[in-house]
Write a structure and sequence with these properties.
24% helix; disordered N terminus; 4 helices; six-stranded antiparallel beta barrel; Helix Hairpins; alpha+beta; RND family efflux transporter MFP subunit; conserved putative lor/sdh protein from methanococcus maripaludis s2 fold; three-stranded antiparallel sheet; 41% strand
Length: 350
């Protein structure tokens, strides 16, 4: 029995020694260390970034120019007498017809041309009637009768001229866009009482420099924004010479204005579709300006970030033309480039 116990003890001891060896070997095997910091995670998987593809596009070069709105066929109602204004029959915004009375003068006795002309017409009318009676009886010749009737016609024309001079009339049909005087004031001979304009269409007048006049083409589209609403117009006049005093080119853009939202005197900024250009373009957020240079971050074939210096061309709200620096098939970083260093591994995210 002692022999059997010794044998079992020997087997148990051997088993314990083998188990101890297995545990020792297991403890000596190296364990892979997991990344625990953001820097380690980014080094292993890459810095997160959102990308877009550079591509060849046709971009509209939009230029901004500012100027004043004027009515179509804008005319001034001119005063022809030096008397004070007795009554003004219109106000700003009134719609008027041609020759409608806008205002009347206060009669002071200093200007009696109309009264004199009216008395002259009355006198000639009475004389003409008497001569007709005599003519019917054969007392005067046809020539004398014709001469008298001609004198009456001339007198009536003079009366109408004097009447028109004694009133301020609308030179054209349209809308009163400006009144410069009030009742009781004296505009004086030649003074402008009101401005009359047609507002179904209006003109935006732009003073354009010699450097920019080449961008304008007749019929080119232009847009202005009024109270959040975009209104479309077209370039209607491009002068062949600059104003000799200002050295600017007075370009005109015509707008349909049926809603009467563009009013004379408004100072507005128009966006002009100046030209179409073809070239490599990237989203505007892809371009980074730093230390006087423009750059774009791209992701190369190895998935690493590379900084590319670029020269910019035409810019819009959404895209920028890259005149130099890209070929047109690169993956450009549009978000996350602020954390990038040249050569960093990039983790592309949606």
């Amino acid at each position: 029995m002692n022999k059997t116990f010794k044998t079992l003890l020997t087997i148990a001891t051997a088993s314990m020694l083998l188990a101890a060896c297995d545990q020792k070997e297991t403890k000596t095997e190296p364990v892979a260390k997991k990344a625990s910091t953001i820097e380690e995670i980014q080094k292993e998987k890459g810095k997160p970034a959102r990308i877009a593809k550079a591509s060849t596009q046709t971009i509209t070069d939009v230029r901004k120019f500012s100027g004043s709105i004027e009515g179509m066929q804008q005319n001034s109602a001119i005063c022809k007498m030096g008397d004070p204004l007795a009554k003004i029959h219109v106000q700003v915004g009134s719609t008027v017809k041609k020759d409608q009375v806008l205002a009347e003068y206060l009669f002071t006795g200093d200007n009696t041309q109309y009264q004199q002309a009216a008395e002259q017409v009355k006198l000639l009318e009475a004389a003409t009637q008497r001569m007709r009676d005599v003519f019917d009886k054969g007392g005067i010749s046809q020539q004398d009768m014709d001469a008298q009737e001609t004198n009456l016609k001339i007198a009536k024309m003079n009366l109408e001229t004097a009447r028109r001079a004694s009133l301020i009339l609308a030179p054209e049909a349209g809308v009163v866009t400006e009144l410069k005087f009030k009742e009781g004031q004296t505009p004086g001979v030649g003074g402008v009482l009101a401005t009359i304009a047609k507002l179904d269409n209006v003109i935006l007048k732009l003073n354009v420099t010699s450097q920019d006049i080449g961008y304008f083409k007749k019929g080119a589209a232009a847009t202005v924004t009024i109270a959040g609403e975009k209104m479309k117009g077209k370039v209607s006049l491009i002068p062949l010479a600059a104003n000799p005093t200002t050295r600017f080119f007075p370009v005109e853009v015509t707008f349909n204005n049926k809603g009467k939202k563009l009013l004379p005197g408004m100072y507005v900024t128009a966006e002009l579709d100046a030209r179409q250009v073809n070239g490599v373009a990237v989203p505007t957020e892809a371009v980074v300006y730093r230390n006087g240079s423009n750059a774009v971050w791209i992701v190369d074939e190895e998935g690493k970030a590379r900084r590319k210096l670029v020269k910019l061309g035409v810019q819009t709200k959404e895209f920028i033309q890259i005149a130099e620096g890209l070929e047109g098939n690169e993956s450009v970083i549009v978000e996350g480039m602020s954390r990038m260093n040249d050569g960093d591994k990039v983790l592309v995210v949606e």
